[in-house]
Amino acid sequence: MPRGGSAKRRQKQKFYAVYKGRNPGIFDDWVETRLQVEGFSDATFKAFPSHAEAESWIYEQRDKEIRQENARLERDYPDTDDDPDAGEQRGSSYPPLPQDNTGLKVDYPDLDALPARLNARGGDGPGAPPYVSPPERTPPSFTPRQNPEHLCPLKPEQERVLALVKQGHNVFFTGPAGSGKSLILKHIKQYLDGVGRTYAVTAPTGIASVLIGGQTIHSWSRVGKGDKPAVCYINKLKSTIKHPDAKLLGKSAKSGETTWKETQVLIIDEISMLSPDLFEKLSVIGQHARHVNGHPVEAPFGGMQLVMCGDFFQLPPVEKDSEKTCYQCGYPITPREERSYLPPDHGYITERIEFLNEIHALRVDSARWSHCSRTGRDREVCGHLWNETIKYCFQTPTWFKIGFNSVVLTQVFRQADPAWIEKLGKLKVGQVTPDIMTFLLGLRRPLGELASGVKPTRLYTHRKTVVDENDQEFKKLKGTEYCFDAIDEGTINKGTGYSKTVNPQELEEYHFFKNLQVQKEMKLKHGAQVMLLFNIAQNDGLVNGSRGVISGFQQMNYSTFMSGRVARDFERPMLKKYFELKQQDGRVRIPLVHFTTHPTPIPILPVSWNTEIPLFYGSMSYGGRDILGLSRIQIPLALAWATTVHKSQGMTLDYVAVDVGHSFAPGQAYVGLSRCKSPGGMQILGGGRNLEKAFLVDEGVLEFSKRLEEQLARDKENGDGDGDGEAAVGQEGGLGQKREYAKYKEEDGSGEFEDDVHDWERVSSHPTLP
Ligand SMILES: Nc1ncnc2c1ncn2[C@@H]1O[C@H](COP(=O)(O)OP(=O)(O)OP(=O)(O)O)[C@@H](O)[C@H]1O
Q1: Which of 19, 49, 249, 487 is least buried, going by the fewest C-beta atoms within 10 A?
Q2: Do 305 and 211 lie in a common domain?
Q3: What is the DSSP string of 615-639?
Q4: Under a CB-based contact definition with an 8 Å cutoff, are residues 363 and 700 in contact?
Q5: Which residues share a beta bridge with 203?
Q6: Is residue 501 situated within a structural domain?
Q7: Residue 401 sits in the same domain as residue 515
Q8: CA-to-CA distance for 117 and 125, rounded, in angstroms?
Q9: Is residue 212 within 8 Å of 269, Cβ to Cβ?
Q10: Which domain, by its residues, includes 493?
Q11: Of 55, 56, 65, whose CA–CA distance to 139 is shortest?
Q12: End position of a domain, from candidates 373, 408, 443
């Protein structure tokens, strides 16, 4: 690449944008460009004096192509009666992109200019940037996924969620533990795959994301820990914010902005665990990352369709006060003892926080508004407003602005016993009535070892207890220890057909592998308590969470191994590979597990966990998707004397002992108890006379749930929706409102955030109000 050289040479530097060619992208060398376009039929390319202009031209070409493709689709496939609202929705909520594509230069606001606009109103404050309507939600070209999973059909109230998603609404759906939220998500994914919409499946924690076959929201959005101010991510998105695995992927994972721009539907599962600060920050980042011609988009999250799911009665966000930073300036938040609060009717609050009354109604203490008093280089006070009693996303202005269509699921599937379901329903809202108390005290009886040798899995609130207990119990076993090593692989498949294997040494750095519950090196002994980590035979009750005990190991030859499980055709190559790599003298060792549900031991053969991460080259991907495929082949077992309540969220367990006594977070005891199918297979640990107090419930969550139910009842009365549990909560505000365009600074915004923080540190803090 001809960088450097004389000033004259630099002046003549050209950037070649190749839109259609062998390897589309931007090149700064004509020889390299020629290789991409010469002899390539239909090659489309152009030279520009700057990289930015070259990039803008590519965006322009792509928008043009998408519009043409849409026009073709509309012509060839006019809306049918099957989905009458889909076309209407597209047309009504999302005005088309401005036709005037001149001045495509992409500008980002600088740090000093941003505080006023990054206030809680998401850009509505004085000096706010020009907002534009979100771009059209358009289907890109796609390749349907192979082997779609056969899913259990949805019940009518679950179908309702899918219907709303199909209609293009922003949807929030909730319901008690075991009401099928994860199942609905799987259906949504299948639908989106089928229609070729670009979507991201995310969750706030690694384990939750793996359970739904997605990635963490931090990794997808490129915010990492997410502790820096929004402006920092906005400034860096374009050029330097890389995929968390970028150092492994090299150039290929360059621009985070493209991920944001190309995603049409963002799914966030376990939304109760997402920090409200990060939720708001992501929305602002989305508004900027999905800019139209440099203008941030007005709609929250930049106008992508949002599907959020979870149960706020379950686990809350894990956040330590000491680790919190100001959402606007990124400085550590003012320590509790130094905080000063503003009067609830202070103009500084009322002018800046939208939906203030609604927020206060959700048990946000109106007397706890505080502001960040850090001063910057120019002695300007940061002034960002925050309220320490905001704990959940539904208490943020962004939540109201999104205007979700909400669905409350009512039917529980995990448990079959109606009396137990009713009790769980009461415990969920903290109602430990005398009869429930008596019932729970009865569950403190010890659970013995089952005929299979299975002991109850102990669910603890603290991780250290779990690690210690599993280690100790494993060491106590006398037999031979066998180690099962996973086969980890990574391949980059380019849209052009070329594929490249990822260096095996680098694989363990990938977040996907770190988040898997199944270990790379798994040690097992005869007598070890284990849990199945994969649905291997649903009809036979061998599902994720099934409990068993290792009853031996079997040496299998090739034919026994290959016929050891009814594998689907596409799994055979995986089994074959495992055998070839692991066999010794023509045999492989396989653990035998005695499950609670089966009279005889079952050999547990390896399975594979796979993920596909779309890669974005330079600024976008063309001509098919460039995909990073990662996979781990391993025996799907984990030691199961103990696990944490946090890890168990989302699982269904057979035989458990739940440590209720040490619960420290709202929803924790409820999550623990609701994992188990029936109280017969459950023991309660600890709690003593304080059992009643273990079922902590957040007042705000109670209020939110109450308002949701009331809205639902009102809608039913008014005949809105079809009474299937849909409620449009929040306000329709935000979308489609006209904002005045204002000028803002044209700077590249590439200043390093860290330097600014150091500057702040050098300047004494100013606890006065701006
Ligand atoms: N329509 C349905 N028909 C039959 N079984 C169902 C249905 N919906 C869900 N289930 C079953 O109920 C169990 C719990 O479902 P799922 O894990 O989706 O619930 P969830 O609401 O996500 O639970 P949690 O909040 O605890 O994560 C699963 O075994 C699932 O297969």
Answers
A1: 49
A2: yes
A3: E--TT---SS-EEEEEEEEE--EEE
A4: yes
A5: 216
A6: yes
A7: no
A8: 5
A9: yes
A10: 485-640
A11: 65
A12: 408
Whole-model pTM?
0.64
Q: Cα 449–452–453 angle (5° rounding)?
A: 40
pLDDT per residue as tens digits for the range 726-745: 444 333 222 222 222 222 22
Distance CA 559, CA 568 (A): 16
Angle at 150 between CA 145 and CA 156, to 5 degrees: 110
* End-of-domain residue from the set 59, 76, 93: 76
The answer to whether residues 492 and 252 touch, using CB atoms and an 8 Å cutoff, is yes
Give the nearest ligand 1 atom to 675 CA: 26
**Looking at the structure, do residues 539 and 631 belong to the same domain, yes or no?**
yes
Q: What's the angle, vertex CA 537, arms to CA 533 and CA 538, rounded to 5? A: 90
Could you give the C-alpha distances from 160 to 117, 194, 405, in angstroms and in order?
37, 18, 11
546 and 398 in one domain? no
Distance of CA 314 to the CA centre of its chain: 17
The H-assigned helical ranges of 38-180 are: 51-76, 84-93, 156-166
Q: What are phi and psi for residue 19, nearest 5 degrees?
A: -85, -45
Interhelix angle 181-195/156-166, nearest 10 degrees: 40
CATH, residue 25: 3.40.970.10
Where do we find the tokens 């297979």? 681
pLDDT in tens, 333-384: 777 777 889 988 888 898 888 899 999 999 999 999 988 877 766 667 788 8
Return the residue whose CA atom lies nearest to atom 28 of ligand 1. 414
Which CATH number is 307's domain given? 3.40.50.300
| Residue nearest to ligand 1 atom 9, measured at CA | 180
Closest to 533 in 3D by CA, of 615, 607, 437: 607
In total, how many domains does the chain have?
3
CA 219 to ligand 1 centroid distance, Å: 26
For 114-125, what is the mean pLDDT?
33
CB-based pocket (< 6 A), ligand 1: 152, 154-155, 158, 175, 177-183, 311, 413-414, 650, 652
Please tell me whether residues 403 and 491 are part of one structural domain: no
Mean pLDDT over all residues of the chain? 74
Q: Does 195 share its domain with 288?
A: yes
How many residues does this entry show for the chain?
A: 770
- 3-state secondary structure (DSSP) of residue 211: helix
Report the alpha-carbon distance of residue 301 to residue 652 in Å, rounded: 33
Interhelix angle 230-237/753-762, rounded to 10 degrees, is 150
What is the identity of the amino acid at 543? V
| 283 found inside a domain | yes
Please indicate, yes or no, if residue 141 is contained in any of the structural domains. no
- Mean of pLDDT values over 241-251: 45
Residue 396: DSSP 8-state: S
CA of 176 to the centre of ligand 1 (A): 10
330: number of Cβ within 10 Å = 22
In a domain, 205, yes or no: yes
Q: Is the dihedral of CA 731, 223, 211, 573 positive or negative?
A: positive
Domain identity same for 71 and 183: no
Residue of 151, 159, 183 to test ligand 1 pocket, by largest number of atoms within 8 Å of CB = 183
User: Judging by DSSP bridges, how do beta strands 487-493 and 529-532 pair with one another?
Assistant: unpaired
524 bridge partner residues: 482
Closest CA relative to residue 642, chosen from 530, 725, 763, 724: 530
Residue nearest to atom 18 of ligand 1 (CA): 180
Q: How confident is the model at residue 568 (pLDDT cuts 50, 70, 90)?
A: low
Q: Is the pLDDT of residue 76 over 70?
A: no
Q: Is the pLDDT of residue 156 over 70?
A: yes
Q: Which residues pair with 216 in a beta bridge?
A: 203
